[in-house]
Design brief:
This protein is mainly alpha-helical and 62 residues long. The protein has 4 helices and no strands. The longest helix has 20 residues. It is globular, with a radius of gyration of 11 Å.
Length: 62
């Protein structure tokens, strides 16, 4: 489930959920909407997964 992966990412990075939404989905309310039951489109889900993977890779490379 996407929200679980996002919540784990937020715990790992300490990133605020509004910043994550802005950076990953161009929507500061994205995470809150998911918490409230929103189902993202497949393209949005793929973009968010790509953001998390890229962010992690860049963190480990630094």
């Amino acid at each position: 489930m996407l929200i679980r992966r996002i919540e784990q990412f937020l715990r790992e990075t300490g990133m605020p959920w509004t910043k994550f939404g802005r950076l990953a989905a161009h929507d500061p309310r994205f995470v809150q909407d998911l918490r409230n039951g929103r189902t993202p489109r497949t393209a949005t889900e793929l973009r968010v997964e790509h953001f998390m993977n890229t962010f992690r890779e860049n963190q480990h490379a630094a």
